[in-house]
Structures are given as C-alpha cells and as structure tokens.
Amino acid sequence: MSVRVIWRLVAMNVMLTLEYRGAFFILMVNTVVVPVISLLVWLTVGEQGVQLPYDRSQFVTYYVLLSVVSMLTATWLAGYVAENIRLGGLSPWLLRPAPYITHDIRNNIGETLVKLPLLLPLAGAVALAFHADLRLPADPRAWLLFVLSLPMAAAVAFLLDFVIGSLAFWVQDVRGLIRVKGLVGALLNGQFVPLALFPRNVSGFLAAQPVRYSLSFPLEVLTGRLSTAELARGFAWQAFFCIALWACYRLIWRYGLRSYSATGA
Amino acid sequence: MRYLRLWRQFAVMSFVREAEYRVNFLLGVGEGAAQLALPVVTFLLIYRFTPRVAGWSQAQVLLLIVGIALATVALILTHLFWSYAVHYYSSASS
Q1: Which residue of B has its CA nearest to A197?
Q2: A84 confidence band (pLDDT: 50, 70, 90)
Q3: ipTM, 2 dp
Q4: Where are the alpha helices (DSSP H) in chain B?
Q5: How confident is the model at residue A264 (pLDDT cuts 50, 70, 90)?
Q6: Domain regions of chain A by residue span
Q7: By the 8 A CB rule, do A167 and B22 touch?
Q8: For chain A, which terminus, N or C, has the lower number of CB atoms within 10 Å?
Q9: Separation CA B29–CA A21 (nearest Å)
Q10: A193 and B46: CB-CB below 8 Å?
C-alpha cells in the first residue's frame, strides 16, 4: 500500500472521530480524572508518614504521565473485530488489497490523533497543579528509551485486543471475555496501582505477563525506577510479547478464515 | 401478593434465559466478581502499608465498596423490573 493511501485512510478515521468530539472530550476527562483520584489517595497515605516504595514526586510523575500513556496505548477494537466476524462484516475486507488488521491500525491512529489535542491541555492542567512535585527525567537517554518502549507498548495492547476479538472465529460471543480482560488488565497493567506496590512474592508473575508491557513498563522507564539489567529484561519481554502476539494473530487468522462463513454480506 | 408472584415469574424467566447461554452466563458471573474484586484488591494493596487512610479503616472502606456494589445491583434490578413490567403490561393489553 502506498503512503498516500495509508494517509488518506488515517485522515478518513480522523474525520469519523471528529463527529463524536464531545463524547471524546468527556472520555478524555475520565482518562485524566481517574489517575488523579488514585494519586490523591496515595498522597494521603504518604502524608501519614508511612514508608512507601514510591516517594511523593515519583507518585506525581507516575500518575500525571499515566493519563497520556494510557491514551496513547489504548485499544477498543476487540468488540468490533468480533462483531465483524460474527455478522459477516468481514467479507468486504477479504476482497480488498490490504489485510483487515490495517483497517483497525488506521482507526486506532486516527482516533489517537483526535484525542491527543483534547487530552494534552487537561493533562497539562494536572501537571501544573502538581508542578512542585513533578520530576521529569533530565537525562535524554531516559526519554529515548521511553520513546522506544511506547510504540511497543501500543503494539502489545493492540495485538492482545485483536487476538481476543479474533477468537470470535470459533466462540460465538466473546464480549464477556473482553470485559473480564479489561477489568483484570486494568489491575495488572498498573492503571490503578503501580506494580511496584504489589507484594514482592507476585513480582515474578507481574514481570512475565503481557499487560505490564502495554502500559506500566514505559512509565517505569520514565520514572527511573529500573536498573540497567531490569531495563534490558523489560525490553526483551516487550519484544517477545510483540512477536508472540503477532504470531498468534497470524495463526488465528490463517485457520480462522477457513472456518469463517457469511451469507448475504 | 400479586406483585410478588409477578416478580417471581420474572426472576424464573430471567434465569431460564441466562441458563440458555451457559458460557456467557458463567463469564457474566466472572465479570461481576471481577468488577467487585477490582476495587477490593486496589484497597487491599493500599492497606498493606497503613491501617488507616484519612481516618478510614480497611473494614470501613470494604463495607463502603460492597455497599456501593449492592446499591448499584439494586438500582439495576429495579430498572429491569420496571422494564419487564412495562413490557408485560403493554404486550398484555395489546
């Protein structure tokens, strides 16, 4: 596919998203408010003189950046993929010159482009409110590693969602599974509580599960909590999950399309 | 008494309908449990470090979470009851 075609399809998704700009603004308010509530709870705990694994500035940095990173790595496609498979909406895509997944990739980029200018002023206002404790890293290497880990985190989140949605080739209704994954994932990706605050005896499990690498890992990179060895291990896990989930996607679609059928589509 | 019988009938109908799609029903139960477990686990993690947060003990917060969950369920059930009731009366009168 040419760059021009990709660009036109992203632009089309931007226009589609702009139709719902009010709804997206409310969604972005929610994206910023929830981390602020968690931050205020942890700051209250910290003010009681309790020894926590994070200090005040690390909490502020983590939760201020959380809203931006969670928006940039967000996915919402599993339900749509499942619906297209179940109701036959996939059929026109099978005749097009690009694989179906490219449609969702462009939809994701298009929506993210619209959400970003809505979110940044809100996140900026929160950053301003907590600016006394906000500590962004001065070392350009930390930013470089963050920029490297962010698209990989988005890829892990996207592919995991896509693979779950694709189970609709064999499972009639995957909506329950999608919702359970959303709830459990929110706990295991550090959205509510940073993973460093979990009990030490589950740290091995937390490090080896994919959702950590869809949100928490880029934040851990930027808050400067990881040693060089932990960074290397983290990037290796992140790359592994990207490749493994891509392989799962290819395998599921290879066999799934053979069992796919639709009438009248 | 008539309303209680009606309520019982709706409950039986709902159960039969849910039981028809068993996997989805089980996933729904799992989802409900996960929905309740998410705030509970979050606060258990917070109370690992301190016995009180702004004067609130762990037991008080857990009671609040379960109370909110029960109130939400009660609101949904009331809404469902009235939707069924409206549907029942409108189809019975037509």
Answers
A1: B45
A2: very high
A3: 0.77
A4: 2-20, 22-46, 58-93
A5: low
A6: 3-259
A7: no
A8: N
A9: 34
A10: yes
**Per-residue pLDDT tens for A207-217?**
999 999 999 99
Q: Per-residue pLDDT tens for A140-154?
A: 999 999 999 999 999
For B47-64, letters b (16+ CB in 10 Å) and e give bebbeebeeeebeebeee
Residue B78 has which token pair?
């009331």
H helices, E strands: number in chain A: 11, 0
Of residues A20, A117, A30, A26, the one with CA closest to residue A67: A30
Report the DSSP beta bridge partners of residue B52. Answer: B57
Domain encompassing residue B41: 2-93
- A9-48 residue pLDDT tens: 888 888 888 888 888 889 889 899 999 999 999 999 988 8
Distance CA A126, CA A120 (A): 10
Q: How many domains does chain B have?
A: 1
Closest CA to A63 of A39, A86, A87: A39
Q: Name B23's Cβ contacts closer than 8 Å, sequence gap at least 6.
A: A171, A173, A176
Let me know: does A109 contact A157? Beta carbons within 8 Å. Answer: no
Q: Distance between alpha carbon A28 and the CA centroid of its chain, in Å?
A: 14
| Residue B84 pLDDT greater than 80, yes or no | no
Residue identified by tokens 């179940």 is: A86
Of B35, B38, B45, the CB nearest to A197: B45
* Gap between the Cα atoms of A132 and B52, Å rounded: 26
> What is the spatial distance between Cα A222 and Cα A152, in angstroms, rounded to a whole number?
15
Identify the residue whose tokens are 């308010």.
A29
Cβ-count burial of A215 within 10 angstroms (0-12 exposed, 13-18 middle, 19+ buried)? buried
Asked if A3 and A10 touch (Cβ cutoff 8 Å), the reply is: no
Q: What angle do CA A212, A217, A221 make, to 5 degrees?
A: 165
- Amino acid identity for residue A166 in this structure: S
- Cα gap A225→A128, rounded to integer Å: 23
User: Quick count: other Cβ atoms within 10 Å of Cβ A100?
Assistant: 19
Q: Which residue numbers of A have CB closer than 8 Å to B's CBs?
A: 41-42, 44-45, 48, 50-52, 171, 173, 175-177, 179-180, 183-184, 186-187, 192-193, 197-199
